[in-house]
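REVIEWER CHECKLIST
Item 1: Sequence provided? yes
Item 2: Single chain? yes
Item 3: Sequence as submitted:
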Amino acid sequence: MDREADVSVSETERLHSQLSRFEDMFPGYRTEIVEGNIMMSPVRPYHNETIWDVRDNLKPQLPADWALISDVAVPMDGDNEFGPDLAVIPKAEWRKNLTAYPPDLIELAVEVVSPSSIRNDYEVKNRAYARAGIPHYLIFDPFRAECVKLWNPGPEGYRGRDTFPYGGTIIVQAGIGKLMIDTADFPVDPGATA
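Item 4: Structure as written out by the authors:
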């Protein structure tokens, strides 16, 4: 039997409630449910700076009826509830100011890698976001000084994948139009392996 079918609304609400408590108890940590486990990752300055840089690039390009959310819960299934670093959703939904949004609203998901999120960002979220039908997924990695662009979602992950070193412009041909992100000034960790 499918695990998703086994999850009751009360179990999902309980997990979401736990996330909220952990976030309040541990400021400076990002909290998500990944494969049924509560994961906490410390936030570093380059992580936030990259999120802000991506946001600053995207926001003026979005059509008037689209908006950005950041670190807002996106329940995926019984084992995963993510808080994407950034996600593009319809502005009508954004205006509802909810604590959680369904993944089918997301046109583009963006994650910024931290040392503790490598597997989650590159593997777990790749599969989960693709299974949910999120058309585009970008992974910005300040430790490798690169962006991985994923598209064409399938049951096992994204079938399209390109990797771009920081320094150029990332172009996403989304259903809402062409989006461009200039990575020339993105922060790169001093120990980057690029």
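Item 5: Key structural point noted by reviewer: Confidence is low (pLDDT under 50) at residues 1-10.
Item 6: Recommendation: ____
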